[in-house]
Amino acid sequence: MMKLDNPSSWFSLPRFLVFLLTLLLTFALGMTLFSLPPAPFQLLDTIHRSLPHSGVTNPVTAVLLNFRAYDTLLEIGVLLVAVFGIRAFPEAFQEHSPSLPAPSEVLLALVRLLVPLMVLIAGYLLWAGSHAPGGAFQAGAVLGAGAVLILLAGLPLSKWFHGWWFRAALILGFMLFLGVGFWAMAMEGHFLEYPRDRAEDLILLIEAALTVSIGCILATLFLGLPDAAPVKDAANEKS
Amino acid sequence: MNEQAWLLDWALAITLVGLALQVLSTRNLFKAVVYFIAFGLLLALTWVRLEAVDIALAEAAIGAGLTGVLFLTTLSHLESTTDSDYESRDTPRQEHPDDETR
Amino acid sequence: MSQFQLYGMTGVALFGLGMYAVIAHAHLIRKILAINFMGSGIFLVLGAVARRASEGMPDPVPHAMVLTGIVVAVSATAFSLSLTRRIHTETGRSSLPRDGGT
Predict the structure, then answer these.
(1) Would an 8 Å CB–CB cutoff place A224 in contact with chain C?
(2) C63, part of any domain
(3) What's C38's domain CATH number?
(4) Is the residue at A76 inside a domain?
(5) Tens digit of each residue's pLDDT (9 = 90 or more) over B6-65
(6) Which contiguous run of DSSP H or E holds residue B37?
(7) What ipTM was assigned to the predicted interfaces of this complex?
(8) Full domain range(s) for residue A207
(9) Has residue A72 been placed in a domain?
């Protein structure tokens, strides 16, 4: 299974030390894992009691978008920071990646069949996230995968990534989430504490904006990897 | 817990660790990335086994799918997909071509 | 052995494998793969912890943490891969050098 060319150099002293220390750390982690205190039943009971008031029935969605909504807000912020980092490279967003072959007919037919289905599935996952497994991240991932499929088939989707409205779509999720948080603070007194009777609608609104944003962000993460041979084209400017 | 469920659990656990060993020790990086995608899909099965279907959906789409595609795209832009460190371990540093202009 | 113990041990083993590989290997792509394995190992540990109260519903708080973690891991992977491609464009190499230079 492991083909080693120079077996003598595999047993150098630093490598062996690293191996020993890693083994020790793994062992210590295992010991810690099995000596954890018993399960926090009080926390589970609290979640069960508050679940009907959270606006959704799926406990994971309730935790993500209501009980620990601040973590989700910061997570979208981390995604945006990664997008900023990737877009900082000047060779990003080439018009056509030169290493892709000409698209085959089968791939094009598959794209025509699959991408509308993927949009439909993303919409269903977004809606189902309130009572069944699903939610904004899964729906956004399916949308992003649809965009990646279109890009892999060689279709010129990347010219859509230059407009101002695409940048607006990128930050829409985060800004809406933040806006709802501040609005809730103005109404109730605490940041991101939704009013009880509007929680369901607010969560669906936030999730819809997050879905669009996450789809655009994931597509940007895929497309924005800078090419190895940048095309020095005077006409290739970014708006 | 019935026996088939236990068999599935053990098979998943052993295959996960085995795939991880393969990914981190094979010399061909393309093979490593393909095994990584397979690992991601098996991990999605493991999430279903742990009754975490939301995580399974996200892992299959993002963890296995998108991350695998990112790796494959990056690999296609490097010049060679073999980890040349395995044979040039004790060659001097002039092995790397400094006179190649970029 | 309960599901928590089995998958907990698997997660810890994956974390250890990933940590060794990230230190011991020099190729950047393999390092990024290894960091992904470390992340997946910790997610598996979290999922196993969520199954500890093995009566009825698993604990949703670790599930939310794992979902957040998967998304953050993919964004970190994408950024580090773009850095790898940039390093390859600038220096022509895709591994860290053996003797500790730049």
Answers:
(1) yes
(2) yes
(3) 1.10.287.3510
(4) yes
(5) 899 999 999 999 999 999 889 899 999 999 999 999 999 999 999 999 999 999 999 999
(6) helix B29-49
(7) 0.90
(8) 57-91+102-223
(9) yes
